[in-house]
Structure formats: C-alpha cells, structure tokens
Design a protein that fits this description.
This protein has three helices and 25 strands. It is mostly beta strands. The radius of gyration is 21 Å and the shape is elongated. The two termini are about 25 Å apart.
Amino acid sequence: MKKNLICLLMIFTMLTTVVLSAEIVEINGYPGVENELITSENQFKITNVVSNDITTYIPGVKTYVCNAPVIVTSLDNLTSFGVSTLSSFGDMYIESTFLVADGYTEEEMFGTKAKRPDGMKFTLTEPGLYYVYGNYGIENLSGAEAVIVINNDEVEIINAEYTDSKVLVNGEEVKFEAYNIHFNNYFKLRDLAYVLSGTEKQFEVVWDEELESIYLTSNSPYTVVGGELAPGDGQAKMSEENKSPIYKDGASVYAKAYTINDNNYFKLRDICRMFDVGVIWSEEANTISIDTSIPYTD
C-alpha cells in the first residue's frame, strides 16, 4: 500500500509499538484486533535502534533513529510488506524508491505472485530516511508502519534564511531571531525556553560541556544565561547541523537542530510537540502563534 503524501535508550510503551530491548523494536499495527490472518502479535522488527525521533515525516507514523546496518524483518505471513526510501517534496515526504528484500529478485518482489512470508528481510546500510509497512490487507486498517532515520556521520552545512514572520506568544508579539531551513522555521532553543518560563509548558535547558549534551526538563523554570531574545540582523546565515545528544526528562530523544553563530536552533514544531505547546500558522497574516493554553496538533 503506497502512501503518496503521506529507529531507544529507554523502554517505553505505546499503543502501536512494543519494545523488546534497547536495540530492537517490534511494531504492532493491530492492537486489540482479532482476525484469523493475524497469527503474530507484531508484524515486523527493526534492529540497531538508538533513539526515537520526535520529528513527524509521515503523519501518525512513529520515527526511529538507527545506526547502520539496520535489518527489518517480517514476523508473520503478510499480504503487504516492504521498505522504501523517503524524499522531501516541499513540506512533506513521499516514497521514492521501493527496495528489494534480501535474496529476492525484482520479479519475486514486485510480480503478481509476490509473497511476503514470515522472516522476509531488508538490510539497510546507507544513511537516509526509510518508510516500512506491513499489513494483512484487512479493510479499513492501515497495519504496521514506521519511519527509520539512519545516521550520517557527515555534517550538513546549509544556508538559513531569516524568518520575517510575526510571532505571537500567548497573544503578545515577541521578536525572535529565527530562520527558515528546508521550509521549516527554526528558533533558538533558549529563546523558546525563556518566553515559556512561568507558563504551564515551561522547561529548563542545561548544556553539559563535558558530555557535549543538551538536557531538557519539563515543568521547570528556565535559568537565564544571557543573550536570550537578542535581536538578529535580518540577514541569512550559514548553519551547521548540530549532532549533540539530546535528553528530555532523562530519556534520549532526537530532533533536527542546527548551529548558527554558536547557538542551537530547533524546528519550532519539534519543540512545541515535545512540550505539548499549541502552534498555529496563519499564511494570510504571515503570523506564527504559540499558545501554551492549547495542546500541540500536527
């Protein structure tokens, strides 16, 4: 089933995901569903998972950060099971290349008599974004899905355009130095923590120089270090991908970040999603509204 518009350092429980260890996750897309076709609790597993990614590449689909090689294996006889690469198309991601499973030919993989047996495997070795799906063809149920991010040791350097949009925080205009990268708005992490301090969605930011890691703590007032909300010059800047480990309330998380002039900038929606802060974009008014009184929605 193709979707056109649409890897954990700690064990956690979610409706669609069952974690067996720190490095392997098993995905269940049919929680509570009884059907004679379903003979396994989970539909496929992913190896070499190092953390979960808060970034949404496909709405409603969990994302996992992995180190190569990654092996994706079916855990039941499925009607549909496959892996494809994902490519950005504006502000969304689409499937671009459908991969061939280990030991299969293209005809065996995509022919009319193609089968998806228990134990079918895909070995992923190249950095990038991948979409995994597995289902029984049960009507009105999409089945098991996951997005995999395989780390790339290379650092991405990209031009960051200055964001000229008006920003409201709980109805009050606030001037931020923010940038647009890959069609997304990136804000200075400490600026966001500063303006949200004292609200019901406040969080603390701590930089561990020795470990070169960022620690975020929910429901804690922010400690001012100086330089918060410093005005920008309105000019584009060169940004360098930041790969410092990030921990939220003790758990490892992944969020795309860039360093601009020694400051860490994060995608606004990633931070708002992480701390359940409402964010609304008005294209007509060219205005971003950040609202701590409402929950985050994609």
